Amino acid sequence: MSSDQKPSVGRIVHYVSYGSPVQPDGTQVFACECRAATITEVGDASVVGLCVLNPSGLFFHALSDGGCSHDETMKPGGTWHWPERV
């Protein structure tokens, strides 16, 4: 994690969705995608609770349910990272 950014309640981050299950032919109906999310709780420097903003509604991932881990490099489903600079 970048040393100049620290997770805190209210910060906007990207949550990587899991996507739909992989079908026998190797395709997915819905691919993994970055979604806007707001930090709602901070467990430590890398695990946070999130409110994820999806086109179909809100998704809450609380610390009590395990939170979401930070992953800036691989960005697998179920993790969060800082938004890319554009």
Q: Please summarize the sheet with the most strands.
A: 5 strands, mixed, barrel
Which sequence of strands runs across the widest sheet?
1-2-3-5-6
Q: What string, H for helix and E for strand, traces the elements in order?
A: EEEEEE
Overall structural class, as computed from helix and strand content, comes to mainly beta
Q: Tally the helices: what do you get?
A: 0
Report how far the terminal alpha carbons are from each other: 18 Å
Poorly predicted sequence stretches spanning 5 or more consecutive residues = none
What does this structure look like?
The chain is globular, with a radius of gyration of 13 Å. Strands 1-2-3-5-6 form a five-stranded mixed barrel. The chain has one domain. The mean pLDDT is 91. The protein is an all-beta fold and 86 residues long. Helix content is 0%, strand content 38%. The chain contains no helices and six strands.
Brief digest:
The chain is mainly β and about 90 residues long. The chain is about 0% helix and about 40% strand.
List the helices and strands and how they pair.
Layout: E1 12-16, E2 34-42, E3 47-54, E4 57-61, E5 68-70, E6 79-81
Parallel strand pairs: 5-6
Antiparallel strand pairs: 1-2, 1-6, 2-3, 3-4, 3-5
How would you describe this structure in keywords?
86 residues; mainly beta; five-stranded mixed barrel
